[in-house]
Amino acid sequence: MMNFTRRGALGGALAAVLLLGACVGSTFETAYDQGVAAEVSRGWRVVAVNVTVPRTLVVSEAKTSLPKADIVWREDPETGDRYDQVKVIMENAIRQGAASVRGSRAVAFNVTMTRFHALTFEAENRYQNAGVHTVDFIIQVVDANTGATIVEAQQIRADFPALSGDQMRAARAQGQTQKKMITAHVAKTIQSWLGTGPDIRGQFSRSGG
To answer: Beta 105-117 vs 71-72: how paired, if at all?
Structure first.
């Protein structure tokens, strides 16, 4: 009986390891090719943040740990439009990140989402110290009055480790949510890109991404 129980425990542990191992993708990162010089961005005044969430992006409502989709979002009502929900989150986050630039030149940020993959509640509850929020988009800066391009479109990746398991339960008890964490990280990424905050670029590896 002891051997059988031990084999069962080892088998369960092995299955868990294999599950997490299967969830490991390529290296995650917060990254962009070239930021904006602070002396340039401080001359801007962001009057519009136009976020487009293409309807070609695949949405999943699958109640699994790692749905295969471009958009995975759970904290807003399932009866709502996930594309619109992501649009609102990103507009708020980018405006927050750009709040530090208060110059005289009116500019607009045109943003196109390429991925918004947060943790499902199944993953959040099942994982411990695992999981990744992947938030990737293309951003372009134009003159708000003339439409002239100031900064050509470039990809920004704002991936970061998600809280899960006991850590996320403790965070929620303190009023923290995935939405607040994603908003804060995207805002910091925008500040980094604009040169008005610390450079937070970096790579990381994590299971459950």
So the answer is: parallel
